[in-house]
Amino acid sequence: MARDRNGPAVLAQLLLTPMVDDRNDSPSAQQMRRVGIWDSSSNKTGWNALLEYVTPALEILNSHIELEGRTIVDTIADNAAYGGMILGGNPTRPARVDLRRVSALLYRNETIEETGVAAGVLNHPANGVAWLANKLHQHGARLEAGEIILSGSFTRPMWVTPGGSVLCDYGQMGTLTCHFV
Predict the structure, then answer these.
(1) Residue 37 burial (CB < 10 Å; 0-12/13-18/19+)?
(2) If you write DSSP's letter for every residue of the chain in order, what string do you get?
(3) 37: which residues sit within 8 A by CB, 6+ positions away?
(4) pLDDT of 127-152, one tens digit each?
């Protein structure tokens, strides 16, 4: 995991087929309790009460299968294609921003490639976190204080290559940049 400080260099040779997508992430300020009764009507209150802040993130996917047009089944079979993440921008208390309306402009080599709005994640990014909390609860686990939670991507993954650069503009929440070497 790299904290975005003037664009960290990512060694692309360590990743088999790197791609990136954008996500809002949220370290929790306290443990989520009673997740079994967490529902969508609790989400706005939950985000404000349980989360310390939200901040832009880029997840670096490390696809082991070079397959454009891959499906969720391909991704699950590929160990969720996780490679790393970059956090940055302007950490913001959830109550200070309409999380449904957070948008992202995703650039590759100074050309806009993808756009999206956080409402594309189950109508509100908190719904993705609630889904995760309930799913973990079904297996006797829970989200712990201080964990980083990726709420779900609202753009498609974008292929990147060595020598390329990525910039994701989240408006008032800031920007993230990285360069693949």
Answers:
(1) exposed
(2) -EE-SS--EE-GGGSSEEEEEEEEE--BSS----GGG--GGGHHHHHHHHBS-BEEEEEEEEESS--TT--HHHHHHTGGGEEEEEE-S--B-GGGS-GGG-EEEEEETTEEEEEEEGGGTTTSHHHHHHHHHHHHHHTT----TT---EEEESS--EE--TT-EEEEE-GGG-EEEEEE-
(3) none
(4) 888 888 888 888 888 888 788 888 88
> CB-based burial of residue 119 (10 Å sphere; 0-12 exposed, 13-18 middle, 19+ buried)?
middle
Which domains are seen in the chain, by residue range?
2-180 (3.90.850.10)
Residue-wise pLDDT for 64-92, tens only, equals: 666 667 676 666 555 567 788 888 888 88
Specify whether the CB–CB gap between 60 and 9 falls below 8 A: no
Which candidate, 4, 113, 110, places its Cα nearest to that of 59? 4
